[in-house]
Amino acid sequence: MLKLDGLTRWVLTIICGYLFQAGFKVLYRLYFHPLKNFPGPWLAAATGWYKFYCDVICGGQYIFHIRQLEKELDSNIIRVSHNHLLINDPDFFHEMNPSFYHRLPLTNSLPALADSKLHGVRRRQLNPVFTPSAVAEALPTLSINLESIGEILSRAKRDGAAVDIQADFFYLTYCGARLDDVYVKRRHKEKPSRDTGKRTLSDVLLDSAEGKGVHLDRKYLIDESVLFMFVGTDTTAYALSFAIYYLLTHQEILNKLRDELRGSEKQIRSHDWPAVRKLDYLSAVIEEVLRISCPVQGFLPRVVPPSGCLVGSTFIPGGTVISVPLSGISNSEVIFKEPSSFRPERWLGDSGKSIEKWRVQFSLGPYACIGMKLSQMEMTTSLAYIFARFDLALHDTDSSSMQVFDYLLVVNTSHVQVMVLKDHWG
Ligand code: HEM
User: Keywords on this record (predicted)?
Assistant: First the structure.
């Protein structure tokens, strides 16, 4: 008989115990779990390694794989992990959002807070940074940053060089999200300063807690800043880059936009952004870019209340995590005629009114995007400024550059680059 020393016996006991527990878990998830009858890959129901494989090894592919499975299995409800269902039902999106809470794995940050009361407190702390008047306060900085981008494009025209305009959009949105200025200065090859005189996100959070007996620890400030760094910059920069791509590949739409911008050149040149914000066609272009590019394509988890809920005639047990994908709404042929076509006109006039309730790319309810107004302002000002001033052409950018991957936020294969053909203000 094989003789084992004490340590080996302990190690083997732990490994066997672990394997037994894992095996038991898998059996339970596959044959006894309340979601056992929902369609979906059995490996995804059994273990988180399936999602890991699609997202980490194959690179941000899980949501797209599941959306494909919806078609293959002909079901709008797919079990994506042992306790998580993806529900592609746009009407249910409106039903669940006012009350279901949710969680994300960024432990200490705002959207991760499953406790709706704590979420409400944190949200009230942050709200002052995103009110319309606070966004208006950010406009002078936005104007300065736009002039810097104008300078970069103008110089590129003189030098006949290509510009990675997507990188410049990161720079613009980084400032907007009130993060500190290290990245910005680096891009301009200046030395980062510690005190810029501008209030950063951490300043706002610390000020809001002062004198109220609220202690904001370092870990919380780091988590919140990391979150803002991604959600406050990448989303808008991504949408702006898609706007450049779609406009430069749809000449007729670009001409219409240019006509509108020409009529407001005075306001654009004087940075009268509140007036520019009222331009109908520009707003429709932005809405359509958001719809078709869908900057948040992944899971937006919500937890079903203990009493459960009905999706159509299907009962979903309480405690189940569910997500309704925004891309399912964007691509719905029931809601949008020819959803894969870029048609800003759909958001205008009576047709626009009839789809008003599907302006959902910033989500709805208590967890809806806190930065929506800021992001809309950044997109309006950037597109107005760039297309009023410059004639551009895509450089080294085609449909393959716009293939997307989902790493919690969506990224495209390679940055949008442009050549500057003409500087109308130069
Ligand atoms: C095109 C731009 C953007 C899009 C499409 C977008 C979309 C979204 C979506 C879909 C959510 C999730 C809501 C949910 O779970 O239902 C969200 C949450 C959030 N967004 Fe945005 N976002 C954008 C820009 C921004 C910006 C510029 C900021 C901040 C500077 C920001 C900050 C946040 C925060 C903090 C949350 C969490 C809100 C909460 O849990 O209360 N986002 N966003």
Answer: Heme, Iron, Membrane, Metal-binding, Monooxygenase, Oxidoreductase, Transmembrane, Transmembrane helix
What's the rounded Cα separation, in Å, for the pair 390 and 424?
6
Note the helical H segments in 160-217: 165-176, 182-187, 201-209
Task: Locate 331 and state its tokens.
Answer: 């691509």
Mean pLDDT over 177-187 rounds to 45
Q: Kind of pairing, strands 390-394 and 409-412?
A: unpaired
| pLDDT over 70 (residue 355) | yes
Asked if pLDDT for residue 74 goes beyond 50, the answer is yes
- Answer yes or no: is the C-beta of 300 below 6 A from any ligand 1 atom: yes
Answer whether 245's CB lies under 8 Å from 402's CB. Answer: yes
Find out whether the beta carbon of 110 lies less than 6 Å from any atom of ligand 1: yes
**Ligand 1 mean position, distance from CA 122 (Å):** 15
The Cα 17–Cα 23 span in angstroms is 10
Of 137, 204, 241, 369, which is best to mutate to test ligand 1, by the most ligand atoms within 8 angstroms of its C-beta?
Answer: 369
**Domain-wise residue ranges, the chain:** 83-191+199-423
Residue 100 Cβ < 6 Å to ligand 1: no
Radius of gyration of the chain (CA): 24
ipTM score for this prediction: 0.98
Q: Which residues of 256-269 are buried (b: 16+ CB within 10 A; e: fewer)?
A: bbbebbeebeebbe
Residue 368, ligand 1, Cβ within 6 A: yes
> Look-up: residue for tokens 């037994």?
20
For residue 182, pLDDT beyond 90: no
Nearest in space to 95 (alpha carbons), one of 369, 316, 398 = 316
Given the structure tokens 């979906």, which residue do they identify? 40
Q: How large is the greatest C-alpha to C-alpha distance in the chain, in angstroms?
A: 92
- In the block, residue with structure tokens 């500190």: 180
pTM over 0.95: no
| Cα–Cα dist 243/264, whole Å | 20
Dihedral sign from CA coordinates of 381, 382, 383, 385:
positive
Q: Can you state the angle between helices 234-248 and 218-231, rounded to 10 degrees?
A: 0
CA of 230 to the centre of ligand 1 (A): 10
Q: Give the CATH number of domain 83-191+199-423; options: 1.10.630.10, 3.65.10.10, 2.40.160.20, 3.40.50.2000.
A: 1.10.630.10
